[in-house]
Specification:
Elements lengths: L1 E4 L2 E7 L17 E2 L8 E5 L10 E8 L2 E7 L5 E7 L4 E7 L5 E6 L3 H20 L4 E3 L3 E5 L2 E6 L6 H11 L3 E5 L4 E5 L2 E5 L14 E4 L2 E6 L4 E4 L2 H8 L10 H17 L2 E6 L3 H11 L3
Parallel strand pairs: 2-4, 4-9, 12-16, 12-17, 17-19
Antiparallel strand pairs: 1-2, 1-3, 5-6, 6-7, 7-8, 8-9, 10-14, 11-12, 11-13, 14-15, 15-16, 18-19
Helix pairs in contact: 2-5, 3-4
């Protein structure tokens, strides 16, 4: 199967005869395309016979939204991921080359575990393969309004989705683009934002794009106010929202370069706010490119 996300094409192959299925990726259905003439961002092969490489250096151990991933550096310069669910059950073994162009994974457990493992494997590969192509997978809830996309970034639980809902309630002609992991890509010097197959707990999987209007960090406060950040503050505010691998110099530098390019043309704000209607109205008035 071939897919198109943020105008990048990629391929997923599933070996026959096993229990794995493309039905494990229902959120990817809007992104299915015919075989493209363009180069692929990556190819991922799902094959449960793949075995882990042992005696490799563990270089990362981080939490996912509903699980964990451990990362190992392979002798060929690539990476090995072990993805586990919240109960600690191993769901996926992912092995990649260094540029994340040719990857493979083995799934484990019941169908729920396999869906979780495969979804995260594709997300990792997309994020890191795209990092050197001016493409960022960001953690944000995003509104489409007047032809522009407006992502709201913040730490988990701060109120990104709540603020998007306030826009839908109070700001005319607003639509939800994505509620967890949209994609930002710079094309010919212009930043665009795209829907993706990853939208957290909200089923919003849209093959949609718009020019990036502004990025707003949500900060809970006792009263509503908004400020535009200077270049240094903007970089420090936006970078943590990007899926990243600090232990890979090429990937991390690619992400930093793309962030720098975005803040040259895109305003970055901090909204100090309550979870109320006024917050959405104040934010829209400040950041809108109407």
């Amino acid at each position: 199967m071939y897919y198109k996300v943020a105008d990048h094409y990629f391929q997923i192959n599933i070996t026959e005869g096993g229990r794995n299925s493309f039905d494990f990726l229902p959120s990817f259905i809007p992104f299915i395309v015919e075989k493209p003439d363009e180069d692929l961002l990556f190819t991922l092969t799902v094959d449960d016979t793949i075995q882990p490489d042992k005696d490799n250096e563990m270089i990362g151990d981080f939490e996912l939204g509903d699980g964990r991933a451990k990362v190992y550096r392979l002798s060929n310069g690539g990476y090995q991921y072990i993805v586990s669910d919240t109960a600690g059950n191993s769901c996926c073994l992912l092995k990649t080359d260094k540029p994340f162009r040719n990857c493979s994974c083995a799934l484990q457990g019941n169908d729920r575990m396999r869906r979780f493992g495969l979804n995260d494997a594709v997300m990792f590969v997309f994020a890191f393969a795209g990092s050197i192509k001016q493409t960022l997978l960001i953690h944000a809830s995003t509104i489409l309004n007047n032809g522009y996309g407006y992502p709201f970034i913040a730490k988990s639980g701060t109120g990104k989705s709540t603020h998007s809902q306030l826009w839908l309630k109070n700001i005319p002609d607003s639509e939800l683009m994505n509620d967890d992991n949209p994609v930002v890509r710079v094309k010919d010097g212009t930043p665009y934002i795209y829907g993706s197959p990853w939208s957290g707990k909200t089923p919003c999987y849209r093959q949609i794009s718009a020019k990036l209007g502004a990025v707003t960090r949500i900060d809970r406060a006792k009263q509503n106010s908004i400020e535009r950040l200077d270049v240094v503050e903007a970089f420090a505010s936006f970078l943590p929202s990007c899926s990243s691998m600090k232990w890979d110099k090429d990937i991390y530098n690619g992400i930093c370069d793309t962030v720098s390019s975005i803040i040259e043309t895109t305003p970055i704000f901090t909204l100090h706010c309550l979870p109320d209607d006024e917050a959405a109205i104040i934010c829209h008035k400040a950041i809108s490119r109407a």
